[in-house]
């Protein structure tokens, strides 16, 4: 299947279109959004030159399942999954922070720790930790939500002091973040996985806080295999993981970390196919279901557009 890297739809009542790193978001009237998960892939806040077939379907359907599975914790934006690659939901006023929660010292947190930092987003990190070690308690390390460029680490106190989020709302966001992470961790454990870290985005609709965007996908989360975790940790070995970190590691090995003057390594068909396989693998592990790719012979853009229009016309 050819990757879907761009959409250009016109829907009844459409007011605006926003193109994110991965998703194309269509505003319909005052109340609704249609979010199309493209096959674009980003790392280090850079959209890579090749799309990944089926990645959009994987992201959209994992997010849809987890939104349904956490709706008892917090109301969310989803109304319906209208296509394998698209969801329609409520339009919210987003908070300008992303709530990142980490159960283990890995990825960005480990790179900061290895560089000698012992405070991350205002949170003091214990001394003597090793890569991939579990924190005594999950830590929340929020970031600013940048429209363009890099998201930046920020502390709770800075968020409140700068008026980005009120203290009352922020306290509620923390409670929701911990409850969602606990549910996601429990669900992952049931499939032999560890939910290592993830991020959540929230907004408000009619004064009520709602969960927005994706949840517990390989783009927003990191998973380890539970089996062999302790042995690999004791030996100082890399953990077997299902997340986008393998893409970042491949890029770093090729001399790319999103910095000026650096070039993305060549994304050969083999590299692209390998990334698709990893995304499908995560889908099947985390959902416990066989991934059913949308039919290859279809005009995918026409299918997405028709499915969305059909739902809107209802």
Characterize the structure shown.
By secondary structure, this protein is α+β, with helices and mostly antiparallel strands. Helices cover 32% and strands 26% of the residues. Strands 8, 9, 12, 13, 14, 15, 16 and 17 form an 8-stranded antiparallel β-sheet that branches. A hairpin with a 2-residue loop joins strand 6 and strand 7. The protein is globular and about 60 Å long.
Q: Tell me the strand percentage band.
A: 25-35%
Discrete helix count: 8
Helix content: 25-40%
Order of helices and strands: EEEEEHEEEEHEEEEHHEEEHEHHH
Shape: globular
The overall pLDDT average reads: 94
Topology diagram in text:
Layout lengths: L13 E6 L3 E6 L3 E6 L4 E2 L2 E2 L7 H15 L8 E6 L2 E5 L2 E2 L2 E8 L2 H8 L4 E2 L2 E2 L9 E7 L2 E2 L11 H6 L5 H23 L3 E13 L2 E5 L8 E5 L3 H7 L5 E3 L1 H9 L15 H19 L12 H14 L1
Antiparallel strand pairs: 1-2, 2-3, 3-7, 4-5, 6-7, 8-14, 9-12, 9-13, 9-14, 10-11, 14-15, 14-16, 16-17
Helix pairs in contact: 1-7
Task: Provide a short characterization of the protein structure.
The chain is α+β, with helices and mostly antiparallel strands. It is built from eight helices and 17 strands. Strand 14 and strand 15 (208-212) form a beta hairpin.
List keywords for this structure.
8 helices, 5-stranded antiparallel β-sheet, globular, alpha+beta, single chain, 8-stranded antiparallel β-sheet, 32% helix, 314 residues, 17 strands
